[in-house]
Design brief:
- The complex is a heterodimer of chains A (230) and B (329).
- With 230 residues, chain A is of the alpha+beta class.
- Chain A has three domains: 30-60, no CATH class; 72-152, Roll (Ubiquitin-like (UB roll)), CATH 3.10.20; 153-230, [2Fe-2S]-binding domain (DNA polymerase, domain 1, Orthogonal Bundle), CATH 1.10.150.120.
- In chain A, 40% of the residues lie in helices and 11% in strands.
- Chain A has seven helices and five strands.
- Chain A has a five-stranded mixed β-sheet with strand order 2-1-5-3-4, sandwiched between helices.
- Chain A starts with 15 loop residues before the first helix and ends with a helix.
- Among the domains of chain B are: 5-53, Uridine Diphospho-n-acetylenolpyruvylglucosamine Reductase, domain 2 (2-Layer Sandwich), CATH 3.30.43; 227-328, CO dehydrogenase flavoprotein, C-terminal domain (Enolase-like, domain 1, 2-Layer Sandwich), CATH 3.30.390.50.
- Chain B has 329 residues and is of the alpha+beta class.
- The chains are: A alpha+beta (230), B alpha+beta (329).
- Chains A and B meet through strand 4, helix 5 and helix 6 of A and strand 1, helix 2 and helix 6 of B.
Amino acid sequence: MPHEHEHPSPDDDLIPDDVQSLEDSPHFSRRDFITGTSAVSAGLLASQWFSPIARTLAADDPAAVGANGLPTGAETMALKLRINGAEQSLEIDPRVTLLDALRERLNLTGTKKGCDHGQCGSCTVLVNGRRVNACLTLALTCEGEEITTIEGLARGDELHPVQAAFIKHDGFQCGYCTPGQICSAVACIKEGHAKDDAQIREWMSGNICRCGAYNGIVNAIKEARDHQVA
Amino acid sequence: MHPFTYTRATDTDTALKGLSGGPAAKLLGGGTNLIDLMKMGVETPSRLVDITRLDLAKVEELPDGKGVRIGALVRNSDLAEHPLIVERYPVLSQALLAGASPQLRNMATTGGNLLQRTRCYYFYDPAFTQCNKRVPGSGCGAVGGYNRIHAILGQSEACIATHPSDMCVAMAALDAVVRVQGPKGEREIPFAEFHRLPGEHPEHETNLQPDEIITAVDLPAAPWAKTSHYLKVRDRASYAFALVSVAAALEVVDGKIKTARVALGGVAHKPWRSKEAEETLVGEQPGEAIFKTAAGAALKHAKGYKYNEFKIELAKRSVVRALTNVTAA
């Protein structure tokens, strides 16, 4: 997402340790860590209840889930997607949603899977600049479109003004809904639906925050809005 | 999700050809309801025909001031903020903006919205064995179950589900006409005849044939629609389906109501146009007393169940409020 204006510096509001840990950002990702630890716990628990559940699922609907967590059973199709300015070639089952293509195939795990039914907004991405729920969008329908995810908002090390404002105003607690909130907020401001608190709340209602960080989210959007129109 | 093949239609003819293989084929528009139902295992098409690239995404004025034509693929968000709709049919704009979320409205199409399926829990989750709509003849889980969101008008013993759309309630009030195309050519379906009441066959929700595609919705010219309003009552302030909603319009000339429109949502298997309420209002002086009489007429034959009895009084008050808001506008 191109943006041209100055944005608030998050550094003012961070304690030195936070700044250090942001700057150090390790190459070992949280996902690697979770995958590693869950392999151990799954091994321990498998004999108790993981494997019986897996067997039941397989017996009910053999087409439902493959070993990689993706649907299996249908023929695959070639697909070219343009994501964050880069073209990606995929060979996918037609059932794969944009959300699963991003997370499971392209390692763009910033976009989050919450409800997977269009009820929470954590999967919000921008398609041709318009916010949509990636969980209800088949990847195949996105051919030729310009897709922007949370990973595509910053310019190098320079955060998008909305990202910086979310940090400054504590627009999150656990952070799970945040990528969706930020993508949604970018569109909300661009649409001109961020005039006042009431309008922001209504036009951000498609993004649920279980931690209840709504006040911070509204303040962040107001600040980012003012920076972008200034 | 069951496996399916995916094809992309380039025009209406190829879309119709894609449908000709029988009921196992489905058209894919915004996908906000269909993909969800496929994930739930309620919808199991073996072929999906993507129609989103068809040239049906325009809102245009009909010649000779006859009204406005809305292409079937116009997205809900675009329709809600289209100047022709905002100026001439505010009730439709308000209804659209009351529905779903900005993300879903960016995806959802006009044609798809017409074909939304009910949010009845017993329909939506195949873990429930009883649902005449999903499995004809299996019974209705809602009649004797948890039926808080269910119908109070026009229901049958076979089904007490409601139609979930906001857009359709406004279109019912506006006397919209649905334009469809099939192998035998084009035809028009008046809005009141598009959706069906459940009767003994709740699995048949509309009078659209399986080999037909919706191409547009026409809104006839309606000067009275400039003073119109959509009221939606729900469990939270935004992003929830209606418990009750009302689309209302009033044209007042010389202190008397000349034209009245009242349609209710969240109360029946289809958008519920109340001619009884409208007839009560015409010729009268607008005011709370006549609005209450009209509300009573609209809900005269309402029947509640264990958990949704409250909807009858709620609907009456909503009719009064919506009409009051129209006169205040």
